[in-house]
C-alpha cells in the first residue's frame, strides 16, 4: 500500500492511457536509442519505470549509484528487484581514492559547511560515477518529474544531454505524485520504506530528511542550504546550468 502521507490524500485513478504512453516511449527508446539505461535511485518514480522495463523485457539496462552514504532501506531495493523480477541491478560506486582525498582534505561530513563543499561531495560520489555508468550508451532514462521542483518545471520528455553527449528521456515528466503512487498500488511495485516515514524525495542519508507538511517534494534534500536550485549535478551542464535542449518526441 502507499505510504501514509499519500493515503491521506484522494488517490488519482491509474490512467490506462498514461501507462500506455510510458510503455510506448520506453519501447521506442529500447528500439531506436539502444543501448540505453535507467539511472535508478530506487525512488518511487524509478521503481515505476523499473517495473515497466522488466515486465516488458525491453532490454534496457538499470544501474544505481551507490554513493557509500545511502540509507539501508534504499539498498534493500536492489534485493527486492532481484527477488521480484530476477534482475541484477548494476551497482556503480565512486572511486575510493577520490572519496579518500575529499574526506582527508575537508572531512567526511564537510558538505554541511557550504554549498560548494556539498557539490564537491556530489561530484565525487555521484557525478563522476554517472559518467562511468553512461560510457558506451546512446541514451539514458531518469525518473524526474516537472512538479518535483521549480528547477524541473519545463522538463521535456526527451532532451539532448550535452554534458554526456547522449539523448536523455524523462518518461514520467508530466506525471503527478499521486499518479506515481497509484501505479505502485495497482501493480504492487516494491518501494522504498522510507516513504512510510514521511520522506518524499530520497538521496544520501545525511543529506535527506522527511518532508514537513506544506513543503514541496524536494524540500528534504540539502535542507540546510538556501532555497533555490538544489541539484546534485547529475542533471546540469559542466558549467552548472540546467540542460534543457528539447528534442521532438515522435
Task: Write structural notes for this entry.
With 250 residues, this protein is α/β, with parallel strands linked by helices. The protein contains seven helices and seven strands. The chain has a seven-stranded mixed beta sheet with strand order 3-2-1-4-6-5-7, with helices on both faces. The longest helix has 19 residues, at 115-133. It starts with a helix and ends with a strand.
Order of helices and strands: HHEHEHEHHEEEHE
Strand fraction equals: 5-15%
In order across it, which strands form the biggest sheet? 3-2-1-4-6-5-7
- The number of strands is 7
Helix content: 25-40%
Low-confidence stretches: 7-11, 237-250
Helix segment tally: 7
- Give the mean pLDDT: 86
Rg result: 17 Å
Shape: globular
Structural class of the secondary elements? Answer: alpha/beta
Q: Any descriptors?
A:
7 helices, 7-stranded mixed sheet, 250 residues, alpha/beta, 35% helix, disordered C terminus
Task: Give a concise summary.
The chain is α/β, with parallel strands linked by helices and about 250 residues long. It is built from seven helices and seven strands; from the N terminus they run H-H-E-H-E-H-E-H-H-E-E-E-H-E.
